[in-house]
Amino acid sequence: xxxxxTLALSKGRIFDETLPMLAKxxxxxxxxxxxxxxxxxxxxSPNLRVIIVRASDVPTYVQYGAADLGVAGYDVLxxxxxxxxxxxxxxxxxxxxxxxxxxxxxxxxxxVRQGARLRVVTKYVEQAREHFANKGVHVDLIKLYxxxxxxxxxxLADAIVDLVSTGNTLKANQLKEVEVISQISSRLVxxxxxxxxxxxxxQPLLDAFSKV
Length: 212
Ligand code: ATP
Ligand code: PRP
Ligand code: MG
What we know:
This protein is an alpha/beta fold. It folds into two domains: 5-95 and 185-211, 3-Layer(aba) Sandwich (D-Maltodextrin-Binding Protein, domain 2); 96-183, Periplasmic binding protein-like II (D-Maltodextrin-Binding Protein, domain 2), CATH 3.40.190.10. The chain has helices at residues 13-24, 58-63, 74-80, 108-113, 125-135, 168-172, 192-197, 199-210, and strands at residues 5-9, 40-42, 48-52, 69-73, 85-90, 96-103, 118-122, 139-143, 159-164, 175-184, 186-191. Strands 2-3-1-4-11-5 form a six-stranded mixed β-sheet. It has a five-stranded mixed β-sheet with strand order 8-7-9-6-10. The radius of gyration is 19 Å and the shape is elongated.
């Protein structure tokens, strides 16, 4: 019998969109993380358990081998770095884009043309830094952990770097998207050591994920 495999998922869209892929491999998760307070969830497979962690913590659990694999957005992976991780499969779930947005009345193109120094709030400091450096735009980056859309409305910032999907959140806060930085989807990430040493144990799960 093979040893236990641990899969790290975050509550919400990642868990919800990963479940059908597990189902295709005949695996069901026995509890719903939205209603259960448990952080370790058994599955119908005696060799597989799911741990529930914050979306931005998934790469950390996998990097240190506390989880053998996990599902994380490319936004999170790019910010964390790929040390100790192997990302063999783009699952094509939780699709969105990372964009720059400003208040509806703000002339971003003109500010850039004038060489203005912009204040930008974001959870994605590394990706924002790289984007504006490539464009030669001077920015002061302020790290936030959520509700970035509020920044320009209360005078904390001129612009935000955040995820956009339908654009509803921007619209509801009188913001407009002015640049797309990258297209985002979620990847399966595997601990590099586990990928080498436990390949036979992991392969059925990797196959199930790569079929979708
Ligand atoms: P954390 O707990 O680390 O603060 P979070 O609560 O924002 O993260 P989710 O909102 O579940 O976690 O986002 C998980 C992933 O889903 C993100 O890393 C991103 O790749 C993707 N995502 C985020 N927002 C959207 C969206 N509106 N539409 C589609 N995909 C999204
Ligand atoms: C994400 C993201 C945006 C919003 C964009 O928030 O941070 O605020 O989705 O989606 P939209 O373009 O379809 O409006 P999320 O729903 O994950 O809420 P959170 O603040 O709890 O992360
Ligand atoms: Mg979110």
